Amino acid sequence: MKKLSILCAAFLLLAVNLTAVAQDEEEEKDFMEMNFYGGLGIPAAGISDWHDTLGAKTGFSFGLDIGYFLKPNMVIGLNMVYSQFSIDAEDEASELHHRLYNPNAYIKYYFQSESNFEPYIKAHIGVENPKFTTLVGNFAGNRYREKTYDPALAFGFGAGVFYYTADFSGLFLEVNYHRALTEDSKAEYGGEEYKFGENFGLVDIHAGVRILIGS
Questions:
Q1: Strand ranges (DSSP E) for the chain?
Q2: Over the stretch 94-135, which tens digit does the pLDDT of each residue have?
Q3: Cβ contacts of residue 197 below 8 Å, gap of 6+?
Q4: What residues pair up with 154 in beta bridges, in sequence order?
Q5: CA–CA dist 81, 36 (Å, integer)
Q6: Contact 187, 193 (CB under 8 A)
Q7: 3-state secondary structure of 50
Q8: What is the pLDDT of residues 20-64, one digit of tens each?
Q9: How is the chain split into domains, by residue range?
Q10: Vertex 81: Cα angle to 77 and 82 (nearest 5)
C-alpha cells in the first residue's frame, strides 16, 4: 500500500511537471527578429544621371534589421543598410564610387496564414549619409574625390514574402523604394562648397535570412 502511494504521488508529480512544460510551450511567442540580407540597389532618380557624367550604375547593398514584436504580426525596429554604386564614366571617375550609409527605423506588418509563406509590407524612415564622387577644384584636367555630404532625411516603403524553413528561421525576398532628400546637402573641398542639388531615389531588391527569438 505504501509503495502504491509513493508510485501515485510520483505519477501525480510527473503529470504536474508535464502540464507546466506544455503551458510554457503554448505561451512561448516571437519576441524579436533579426534579418541579415544583401542584394541590388537600382538608381531610380538623382544619382542615376547626377551631373550627367557621374551617374550611378546598378550597385549592391547589404544590411541588418533588429526588430521587436508589438503584436504577433507587427514589428518595429532599427536597421542599417550600406549601398555602393559604380559610376557611369570613362575617365578617372570610373574607378571611384558613390556610397550610402543609411540607419533607419522601420515598421513591418505580416499577413499570417496556415502555410509556411508570410507576405508582409514595410515602411522605413531614417538618415541618409551620402558619400558621392564629385568633380572638385579648378584644374586644367578633371579631378574627382569621394566627398561626404551633409546627412539628409530618407524614407521609403516596400513589400516582401517570408518562407519558414524551420520553426524559428527562414528566408525572405523583398523590394523597397527608398527616397532621400539630398537636394540641399553640401560638401567642402579646398575651401569650396559643393551642393548636391537634387533628391534621389533607389529601388532595393534584398534577399536574406530571418531569425526569430522567442520570449
A1: 30-45, 55-56, 59-71, 74-88, 97-110, 117-135, 144-148, 152-166, 169-180, 186-189, 192-195, 200-214
A2: 778 889 999 999 999 999 988 999 999 999 999 999 998 888
A3: 183
A4: 126, 180
A5: 10
A6: yes
A7: coil
A8: 444 444 455 779 999 999 999 988 876 766 554 577 788 999 999
A9: 30-214
A10: 165
Alpha carbon separation from 168 to 59, 69, 162 (Å, rounded): 31, 14, 12
Are the beta carbons of 101 and 127 closer than 8 angstroms? Answer: no
Neighbour count for residue 166 (Cβ, 10 Å): 8
Grid coordinates representing 137 are 577644384
Given 3.40.1130.10, 3.40.47.10, 2.40.160.20, 3.40.309.10, which CATH number is that of 30-214?
Answer: 2.40.160.20
The number of residues in the chain equals: 215
